[in-house]
Amino acid sequence: MKNRILTLLALTGILYSCGDKGAKEKKEEPKKDYVVLNGHIKTDGSEAQDLYLLVDPLAVENNIIKKIFLNKEGYFRDSIQNIKEGYYILMNGDNKAVNLYLKDGDVINVKTNALSNESFLDSLTVKGNVETTFLTDYEKFKQTNFDSNIQELFSLNEAPFKAKLDSLKQRSIDYVDQYKGLSDTAKKVAKDDILYGWGLVLNSYPMAHAQIKQDRNYKPSDSYYDFAKDIDINNVDLFKSNAKYKNYVAQELNRRIAKDYKPNKDEDQIDYFIKRLKQDSISPYIKDFMLVQMANQGIFQPAPPYEQYQQGVLQNVQAQIQAFKKKNPNVKIPASATPTKEQIQKEYKKYLAEYNKFYDKSYNKVLTSVETPEFKKILEENNLIIKGLKKGDPAPAIEITKDGQVTNLIDLYKGKNLLVYFWSASSENTSSFFEDYNKLVDEFAKHNIAFATVNIDLLNKKDKWDLTIKEKQLKGDHYLAADDWDTGFLKSYGFDIRPFPRFIIINSEGNIYNFDAPTPKDKNLKKILSELTKTK
Prior knowledge:
The chain is built from 17 helices and 15 strands. The termini are far apart. With 536 residues, the protein is an alpha+beta fold. The strands form 3 sheets. Strands 10-9-13-12-11-14-15 form a 7-stranded mixed beta sheet. Strands 4-1-7-8 form a 4-stranded mixed beta sheet. Among the domains are: 306-387, no CATH class; 399-533, 3-Layer(aba) Sandwich (Glutaredoxin), CATH 3.40.30. Mean pLDDT is 85; it is low at 1-24.
């Protein structure tokens, strides 16, 4: 399928309804407070194809509105209560996506063949309202009429590139103008959306062109960015309602600030970023969004655990040794060239101290600069995830299913120490710990400690969950997270930024004993459990 040039997302439209003024007054039906999604998506039957996510592209965080599961034949039917009227995306892990306009009372029907990217769009039909039908028709229009893929477009020199892009933009606007049944308001928003998509592609051109031409010294003409002068980047209402506009503003602000930044020992990049947003009189809401985005990308990154740090150091040393041997085959490499475990542990402590100092300083700079309560709350929540729960902190609830009911795992083991093994079927490393985990359960069977596994992605595939437990002969107790990836404890325990599997130890009082326990392959885990249970 040809690459898409200007993807239309997140429009807002107005629908009209006409009342029936007959001689006899008809009894009004109660207004429905839900939208129905149903249809048939032909797939190959693989697990990767049977889950679709309904996504809100304007959500600041947690943009998944609903999980839509297909049955074995590819049929689905689901409903969403009290949905906010607007545009959404139905997509799966293979980036197959359907743009939808949803409001309470609608019944949306989707049919397509998902066996390939080409057949997905070619066979796609969506019914339910004119805005949704328009989005599908527009995607097909682009596929049919835009004869250049994105790489070919970016390979053009500046003047023909801009001329080509302008032509594509105008053809898109003409299509919207001529589309029957679409309200004038919806058409205006659609054309605005095309404009900001055009701006995004223009901003992407210099770097993409340099990469394609393999020319690091490439720079656009002095007048290249003049187009940006005519686009208002401080419209808060539009920023909240149009995803393409929001993406364009974020990209444009980052471009302007990065262009003007000069390294300064008295002012780091975070200081300059904050200063520029204030100097340019960017509205508090947009400014704070930019600061949260910067923090998520550059600050809220946890320090690697010791095992990962150690592996990285040893791999780097071995690579250097091999490179030296290649140039000096007759020189003997002393054993001291490879650092000892004690040396690595010492360096890791230094690294952690420096990391924590940088993190705390950077986080406080951003937090004190944010004014909007919504974004301040996001920063504070993310900070708690990064810092992790400390020893002695009350353990947040771990919502699991037991006998068809949702319950808190911690309540099931009151008075007992508990090691929880969180695992995901989609994680490549999960199964590598099962054997050592079983040995650990046997070794501590007579002590006051319980062992429980919690899976976070097989709630709707219990047969596979049961089969894994039986095949691996997993010991201890076994549970499923109450809502798979959307279960509340995944955020409170920092699973969105820490890798699977995870091992967490909770003491008999329900408090955190070890927030990031070593894996069963690490002998230190036995030492921690022995200390906890007072065994030798």
